[in-house]
């Protein structure tokens, strides 16, 4: 009961911070012809991006296993756009998730297919991703988990994936396949309504298949020779999820992940400050750092500011 009370309190706080709702507007007749629909779609993209930023503060498993639908359930979504006329292009995406929850055990499998062609009808996206997540709560503090991901890129060695200022040599190191599957324990160090901190560690298998550029044509830098380099090794992962509520109107989150293997080391840290200025005004400021050991510029930093005001 205590765990459920903590969870309810955190959910209510997150909902309060994001409570200012964006106004919804129906498109009027003629909106497509005069360009109103295009602007409205761009406005919706901005609103979705803001909502996604607020959602990053959520952690359904912060205080324990949340009450969730039992049994088997899932969903599938598909989108397609084909264009003819001034340009010949098409985009296709399919996403699906299948979940199964039974008591303290929960698991889900997700699939994402992406395919796209540019204005010349050449493929510019061809990716497939599969993910798996599983968790078993032993008690309020200890849990076991498993997670996995497989991503394939059909254009990893294709020059159509290069930018305007890139050459064949820039394909070197592109991932044709990237996979990881690991299992391990987790522990909730702090588990109160004001402070929650959980850490987890996993050991698993890391598999990568990369493009190894051998030569670049001296007369045409868009052509050359390459081969695929496959590596399978042990991968270790450490993760931390920290939450602290300073007041009913202000809380902090800090998410850290570290994955290491012979392929590379990857570290991400996402710090978020979440403010509720009033019943109609909420703000989130975040600072995300991503480090990848085998990149020429190893560290990327992103400052994000999201604000929503409803009236």
TrEMBL record:
Instruction: Give yes or no: UniProt keyword Signal.
Output: yes
User: Taxonomically, which superkingdom?
Assistant: Bacteria
**Signal peptide residue numbers:** 1-23
Record keywords: Signal
| Any Pfam family | DUF481
Does this UniProt record's set of keywords contain Signal? yes
User: What name has this protein been given in UniProt?
Assistant: YdiY family protein
């Amino acid at each position: 009961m205590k765990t459920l009370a903590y969870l309810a309190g955190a959910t209510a706080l997150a909902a309060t911070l994001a409570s200012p709702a964006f106004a919804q507007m129906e498109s009027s007749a003629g909106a497509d012809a005069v360009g109103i629909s295009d602007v409205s779609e761009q406005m919706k993209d901005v609103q979705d991006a803001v909502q996604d930023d607020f959602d990053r503060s959520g952690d359904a498993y912060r205080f324990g296993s949340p009450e969730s639908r039992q049994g088997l359930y899932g969903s599938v979504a598909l989108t397609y756009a084909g264009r003819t006329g001034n340009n010949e292009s098409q985009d296709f995406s399919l996403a699906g998730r299948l979940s199964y929850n039974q008591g303290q055990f929960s698991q889900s499998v997700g699939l994402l297919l992406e395919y796209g062609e540019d204005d010349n009808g050449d493929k510019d996206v061809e990716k497939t991703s599969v993910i798996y997540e599983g968790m078993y709560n032993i008690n309020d503090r200890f849990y076991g988990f498993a997670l996995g991901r497989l991503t394939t890129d059909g254009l990893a060695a294709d020059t159509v994936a290069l930018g305007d200022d890139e050459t064949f040599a820039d394909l070197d190191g592109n991932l044709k396949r990237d996979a990881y599957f690991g299992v391990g324990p987790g522990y909730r160090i702090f588990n109160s309504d004001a402070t929650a901190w959980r850490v987890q560690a996993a050991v698993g298998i890391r598999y990568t298949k990369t493009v190894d550029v051998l030569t670049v044509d001296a007369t045409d830098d868009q052509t050359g020779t390459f081969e695929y380099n496959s590596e399978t090794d042990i991968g270790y992962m450490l993760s931390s999820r920290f939450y602290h509520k300073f007041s009913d109107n202000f809380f902090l989150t800090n998410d850290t992940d570290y994955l290491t293997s012979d392929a590379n080391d990857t570290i991400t840290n996402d710090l978020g400050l979440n403010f509720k200025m009033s019943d109609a005004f909420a703000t989130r400021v975040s600072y995300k750092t991503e480090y990848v050991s085998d990149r020429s510029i190893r560290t990327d930093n992103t400052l994000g500011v999201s604000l929503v005001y409803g009236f």
